[in-house]
Amino acid sequence: MTTTDQIIEERGQVYGDFYQGIKLEVDLLGLIKDRHYEHYKVDLDPMYAAYMAKIIMKLSRLSITPDHIDSWADIAGYARLVELHLKKGKPDAENTQIGNEESTTNAHQTEVRKKGMFG
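The structure assignment produced for this chain is given below.
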């Protein structure tokens, strides 16, 4: 039987030091939240922060093992789950395109000003 300490040791060999990874995750999420606040002058919705935290965790792991296919698959899976959640109850969601429009509506029916793809 594998002990918790053995699992921690194995994960550390694959993904690097846990605490350094957590620090990177906190830093990245903080940067994203700060950017959101600077742009909208409101805090990032905690649900979006939680979605992003899952993906950021995998990015942190990929910084050590960029060829670890499972982490890439996990990111795709998390992104798909968020996409499905955001489209839930929106029958026209499949036909919605987000591009360089002046404004659009997000999943919470809030108007969002678009600055263009890279603006």
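Interim note for the steering committee: Residues 1 and 7 are 11 Å apart (CA to CA). Residues 16-87+103-113 form one domain.
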